[in-house]
Amino acid sequence: MSDAHHISGNVHVRRFESGDELARAAAAAFVETVVAAQRDRGHAAVVLTGGGTGIAVLDAVLRAPGGIDWSAVDVYFGDERYLPPGDPERNEVQARAALLDHVPLDPARVHAMPTLDEAGAGSPESAARTYAQVLAANSPDGSTPEFDVHLLGMGGEGHVNSLFPHTDAVREQDRFVVGVDDSPKPPAARVTLTLPAVRRARQVWLLVTGAAKAEAVAAAVGGADAVDVPAAGARGLDRTVWFLDTEAAAALPAG
Ligand SMILES: O=C(O)[C@H](O)[C@@H](O)[C@H](O)[C@H](O)COP(=O)(O)O
């Protein structure tokens, strides 16, 4: 069981006894959100994340997929390690292994970020421009799709997607996708949706486990500057939900 706690505005915190419990609850909420979007609009658009917690949620969705019509789901990625096709460190590869390869998605609706061009013609920046075009082509107005939910993991210093503290990427105000050449966490080359893109999602869910995240969770929930703690800037249009295990929630005020 979790207690759902309303923080302020549209920000909510849900606490769970374990990472497994968190993954099952987030998976159930994911299924409910996708089904509701399909009922209301005929299709759903989701943004997936890498990281152990985010992939565990996809695994839990596979085990309890409810009534999702997989043929009417568009899948996007919040960030990607700019690596060769099939590299096991790519978020896309991990998401395929956990869920995407096992459900009847329309392959044309799985919008992976570009891979490293081993001939050397590309770059994270060119990959970002390509992905921005993918988003625009699937949007009502040349911006981004109307994302129903954007899943996010969070690093111990508060990074989300490949938006690390005190970087140009986290400061980006205009573009929806940028390339990163110097990620402080390897690999250095990445492609990432920016905070303006994240904020276009109806719902943003932060999936966070472990004591190493507790201080950053408290800072972000407490309203830190997003340049210092990028997760603080990740807000959904309708709703922002923190899914936390007991350890990750440990530095929050009781409630
Ligand atoms: O791109 C990366 O290097 C990781 O994927 C990273 O961004 C991850 O999502 C967070 O660090 C949370 O990871 P955990 O959920 O495994 O703690």
Automatic annotation (TrEMBL):
This is 6-phosphogluconolactonase. It comes from Rhodococcus ruber BKS 20-38. Residues 18-242 form the Glucosamine/galactosamine-6-phosphate isomerase domain. Hydrolysis of 6-phosphogluconolactone to 6-phosphogluconate. GO terms for molecular function: 6-phosphogluconolactonase activity. Keywords: Hydrolase. It catalyses: 6-phospho-D-glucono-1,5-lactone + H2O = 6-phospho-D-gluconate + H(+). GO terms for biological process: carbohydrate metabolic process; pentose-phosphate shunt. Belongs to the glucosamine/galactosamine-6-phosphate isomerase family. 6-phosphogluconolactonase subfamily. Pathway: Carbohydrate degradation; pentose phosphate pathway; D-ribulose 5-phosphate from D-glucose 6-phosphate (oxidative stage): step 2/3. Its EC number is 3.1.1.31. Gene3D superfamilies: 3.40.50.1360. InterPro entries: 6-phosphogluconolactonase_DevB, 6PGL, Glc/Gal-6P_isomerase, NagB/RpiA_transferase-like. The gene is pgl.
